[in-house]
Amino acid sequence: MERRRHPRQFIERSESEEYLHKAAWSVVNRQLRRAEKKRRGALYDDLVAMVFAFHSIEGYLNFVGEKIAPDLWKNEKHEFGNDLYKKLKAICERCEIDPPEKSKCPYSTIEALKDLRNKMTHPKTHRAKEETKFTDGQEPEIFSPTHLETLVSHEKALLARDDVRKIADLIHPAARGRFPDSGLGSDPFDGITSMRNSSTSLLSDDP
């Protein structure tokens, strides 16, 4: 009797990278386009754009750091804690460029975005007391701008996008020049969003 042949078994091994900072950047641009298309309720689109602008630069710095300074990013929390500027300085040192000044644009915008991100990640009730003096016939407005409206606007959202891009565009060519084989890609935020390598081998054969 002919022996029954079993299908051969294979195994695939793969490694992949997905660049979530690029996904965050797509959110920024999508929300800005939405805010410009429909201004009614656009405060919330601008809010999302600003929060994700911070996610974009935070993710980008981690992406670059893991590529060009794996010794530091191996113990990221120990090396940097929650200090994003320390990460930026470390990357700039490896790239042999001067970091942006912490107290000036574009980096001061990043600090404001971080504060906004933290407020929305750990939201608390905002309480305020006001006292307004006015003359008869010039009563103050019943509704003053909300706290959120003092933090978020379309102009601030556009500035967030532009300043995040400025920092990334400062780092990226320098990093690629110093570390040409690090796989950084041609652009900080555009281009492929993931990559995958795989190999297949025979697991077993017919006895």
How many helix segments? 8
CATH class bucket of the domain at 19-124 and 148-179: Mainly Alpha
> What's the helical proportion of residues?
40-55%
As a percent range, the share of strand residues is 5-15%
Please count the beta strands (DSSP E, at least 2 residues each): 2
Secondary structural class: mainly alpha
Low-confidence stretches: none
Cα-to-Cα separation, first versus last residue:
16 Å
Mean pLDDT: 92
CATH-defined fold name of the domain at 19-124 and 148-179: Four Helix Bundle (Hemerythrin (Met), subunit A)
The CATH level-2 architecture of the domain at 19-124 and 148-179 is identified as Up-down Bundle
Helix/strand order, N-terminal first: EHHHHHHHHE
Q: Give the overall shape.
A: elongated
Q: What strand order characterises the main sheet? A: 1-2
Radius of gyration based on Cα positions: 25 Å
Which quaternary structure do these chains form?
A: single chain
Largest sheet: 2 strands, antiparallel
